[in-house]
Design goal:
Blueprint: E1 5-10, H1 16-30, E2 37-42, E3 53-57, E4 70-73, H2 79-96
Parallel strand pairs: 1-2, 1-3, 3-4
Length: 98
């Protein structure tokens, strides 16, 4: 499956999710991935089909427990953690296509 959309979520959809979204966009650029729409939203908007990959902080992991292809960050400020987990997830999702 080709990843077309990544949704970054937080409780209100305007604070940490925006920051994580900006960091996801930076990582995608660094690893040369283009054509992926990155959005930020409330966890209540994170439902199956809303995105191909979901990204949340560890404090919200329970709110997205049923979603496929989720990335749970222990430290939402860590670019290294984000890059490692996002790269791994992109590879996993793209392999599912084959």
């Amino acid at each position: 499956m080709t990843v077309k959309k990544i949704m970054c979520c937080c409780g209100t959809g305007i604070g940490s999710s925006l920051m994580v979204r900006l960091n996801v966009e930076k990582v995608l650029k660094q690893i040369g991935k283009t054509g992926i729409n990155v959005v930020h939203a409330r966890t209540s908007e994170a439902v199956p089909g809303a995105a191909d990959i979901f990204v949340v902080g560890g404090d919200l992991a329970a709110h997205v427990g049923e979603l496929p292809n989720k990335i749970v960050l222990r430290n939402i400020m860590s670019m290294n953690e984000l890059q490692d987990k996002l790269t791994e997830m992109l590879e996993k999702v793209e392999k599912e296509e084959n």
